[in-house]
Design a protein that fits this description.
282 residues; alpha/beta; Rossmann fold; 2 domains; three-stranded mixed beta sheet; 10 strands
């Protein structure tokens, strides 16, 4: 997804997942939810033709944006660089971009933690979210427009059909707030799905820290690859039933009924069986 600035000619490209947001009321509501401040280290992913960018810059003139479509760069520069000389565009793939490079200015001064916003392309939204979670300790908050189904999965609780790998890992790092829905008619061209705005606030201290987060990721991924099976069967390649039962977890229930805290306990048990502390909460 991207943002449109009326009057700027640029045809949306399917390969970039472009659907330009054109609803001024929605744009204002998004910016009001973000509450940008002048001193923020603010980053926008997928500025498109600058509809949200304009309002962010009016408050935070040191805005950085990450845009893959090189044909949009002159559109953005023509609109903003004369009025906002500290506005910076990074023409690159957000999936490959090192967001830690934005923590300091060109003189090496600390700019503070990141605040990340964006209309994320639906075709890469999940891998991009996982990429951004790797910077969780360097981020104050994130506000994204995503496919409503993806936001529902992020916010889902145990027992819900939407609850899965994305729910567990996003909630491991962040408080998740589903803010509001955005209908297809707010975009040009109209997407075939509803959208939603989500706020992710990384925890200063993880509520359920795993001894080895890589093992947690592996265990959660393994469990939900076979989500229709019981926990006993979905995890049998990693943990024997006796090890699971020693944690007072019922092996006859499905992965979608296991809480985040229980998944962390299972991953710590896996660390014990493998003789690994791991130690890294990346």
């Amino acid at each position: 997804m991207n943002n449109a600035k009326p009057g700027m000619e640029h045809r949306a490209r399917k390969r970039f997942g472009q659907n330009f947001l054109e609803d001024d009321n929605i744009i204002r509501r998004i910016v009001k939810s973000i509450r940008p401040k002048a001193a923020d280290n603010l980053v926008e992913i997928g500025p498109g033709k600058g509809a949200i960018t304009e309002q962010l810059l009016s408050t935070c003139p040191t805005l950085n944006v990450v845009e893959l479509d090189r044909d949009l760069i002159p559109v953005l520069l023509a609109q903003f660089i004369a009025r906002y000389p500290d506005f910076k565009i990074h023409q690159t793939d957000a999936l490959k971009f090192d967001f830690a490079t934005l923590l300091q200015d060109s003189d090496g001064n600390n700019r503070g933690p990141l605040r990340i916003v964006g209309n994320l392309p639906y075709n890469i939204s999940t891998p991009l979210i996982f990429h951004l979670l790797s910077y969780h300790s360097q981020v104050t908050d994130m506000h994204f427009m995503l496919q409503k189904e993806v936001v529902d999965r992020m916010a889902a609780q145990p027992g819900a059909k939407a609850y899965g790998r994305l729910s567990v890992m996003v909630q491991y790092y962040c408080k998740v707030e589903n803010l509001f829905d955005v209908p297809p008619e707010s975009f040009n061209p109209r997407p075939k799905v509803d959208s939603a705005i989500v706020r992710l606030v990384p925890y200063t201290e993880l509520p359920h820290p795993a001894r080895n987060v890589k093992l947690l990721e592996r265990l959660v991924n393994t469990a939900f690859q076979q989500r229709r099976k019981t926990l006993r069967n979905s995890l049998k390649q990693l943990l024997p039933a006796e090890a699971i039962e020693s944690l007072n977890i019922d092996t006859s229930i499905r992965p979608e009924n296991i809480t985040l805290a229980e998944y962390v306990a299972l991953s710590d048990k896996l660390a014990d069986t493998l003789g690994k502390d791991g130690g890294a909460n990346s």
